[in-house]
Amino acid sequence: MKGPTPRYSALALLRARFKGAGFWMPLWTGRTLKDGYDVVVVGAGGHGLATAFHLVRDHGLKVAVLERRLVGYGNVGRNTTIVRSNYLLPENHYFYEDSLRRWETLSRDLNYNVMYSPRGVVDICLSDGDMIDAARRGNAMRLAGIDSDLMEIDALERFAPELAPRRTRRFPIVGALVQRRGGTVRHDAVAWGYARAATALGTDIIENCDVQGLRTEAGVVTGVETSQGFVRANRVLFATAGHTGMVGKMIGVPLPIETHLLQAMVTEPIKPLINSVLVYVHPGHGETYILQSDRGGVVMGGHLDGFPSYTREGQWHRMEDVVQGAVELLPQVGGLKILRQWAGTNDMTMDGSPIMDRVKYDNVFINAGWCYGGFKTIPASGAACAKLVATGEAADIARGFRLSRFATGHLLDERGGGPFPVRL
Amino acid sequence: MSRLICPFCGPRELREFEFHKTLPNAGESPFERVYLRVDSLTLSVEHWQHVQGCRAWLQIERNPSTGEVLMTRLARSGEAP
Fold first, then answer.
1. Among A11, A69, A311, A404, which is most buried by a count of CB atoms within 10 Å?
2. Where are the domains of chain A?
3. Could you tell me if A417 lies within 8 Å of chain B, comparing CB atoms?
4. Residues of chain B contacting A, Cβ within 8 Å
């Protein structure tokens, strides 16, 4: 792999030992905008960068990634780093499983350590009804060849001793659905790794470049107008996550998307306490998922704030819900101080599943609507979206994600909640 | 934005209220009315309900980029949310 950075290996480490600090170069270097490209990708987040990487590597196209702010400034740097494929619907679990398989080898594919940690994702059940629901989902996954374990209390006690599932609680734990291959990935490394790999193959990543509109000729888009001038493009892909609604407005297509806030927070670092990712939907006040980062901080998140917002300021009462859930589940975290709390904008679709399709023009595509689950799908989305943009044909595993499903009634409503993203 | 002013109950904590849907509908067909959304950076007109208070249906105008509440009033009868 040519580029400003050497290929990382044990030998490179050894060489760096003798060459000194000058051996290590920036992961990618700034590029200047050229006149035209095969594909212009709007948005240098996880999905945009992954798609650019696959467009270059798998399809040999000339690609630019235009970013309004900085690489990885949006949700790829704001999520809680969880990866899993424990979905019920076939359209979803095959896709998410493809992604999980790619996570397993991604560090090698990118020559960059993304720190995939298959520590297990534990969906905690509090009632027999929860267990029946978990068994249904677990069985659907197993039929698709995805690992899942329905654990009753003995097995759960062995798998997640920190939970102390036998402890007397107001809402006793009765079991859990566990996906052992689920876990976490270092989120920033994903953005950096894809950016490095894509630029090494010749992709131009242009930061601080605001896309302001599309230029069309005879019903075909010929390029994009940006704050740095006009750029010719044979194809345009929007991968703008929390600002997809704005993109819809810009190209004049109303989308089945509302933009909501999701918060996360992290405590001061402590010694290893939580071995896996614990997901706790607690009666009365929403949801808490909780894990421990490699640095030792306890990372927590919960449900959406509850109304459309672009402020990136989380609501206090939702933070309170998350913390209540965490303390209810693991009383030993009760004394920890929260160091940081933040929020990201989520493009919530009206059935909770993504959209990867053409919009309005033959050569304009969107990769959007990942709701609060976009991070875990980055590798699969990059490959599938690159195929769609390069060949015009949707990848087999992404056929369900077409925009027309809302009009034809082929919804992928995993949650069974109807067209209201914030209702539990 | 941490409070809303209910026309019946006065200023109340935000957690007492539940957001329902943005207005207006993007079109007349059932597909447009049910699934499409007006997603604005500057002005969002919405139906909310004061679920943990008087249960009145409210129409609220907000700026989603700043969180500022511009207007709160009762949703008119006959205008189904």
1. A311
2. 30-117+182-256+350-424, 118-181+258-349
3. no
4. 1-2, 13-15, 18-22, 26-27, 31-32, 34-41, 44, 46, 48, 62, 64-67
Please identify, in words, the CATH class of the domain defined by A118-181+258-349: alpha beta
| Complex ipTM tops 0.90 | yes
- Token pair recorded at residue A258: 């509302």
The pLDDT assigned to B76 comes to 76
Instruction: Report the SS3 class of residue A343.
Output: strand
CATH of A30-117+182-256+350-424, one of 3.30.497.10, 3.40.50.2000, 3.40.1280.10, 3.50.50.60: 3.50.50.60
Q: Does A310 touch chain B (CB under 8 A)?
A: yes
Residue ranges of chain A with per-residue pLDDT less than 70: 1-5, 285, 424
Query: Which residue in chain A is spatially nearest to B3 when comparing CA positions?
Result: A315
Please name the member of B21, B26, B34 whose beta carbon is closest to the beta carbon of A254. B26
Q: Is A104 left (phi over 0), alpha (psi -120 to 50) or beta?
A: alpha
CB neighbour class for A314 (10 Å; exposed up to 12, middle 13-18, buried from 19): buried
**Interior angle at CA A115, CA A113 and CA A118, nearest 5:** 140
Residues shown for chain A: 424
Go through the domains of chain B in sequence order and give each one's CATH number: 3-74 (3.30.2270.10)
Q: Do B39 and A256 touch (CB under 8 A)?
A: no
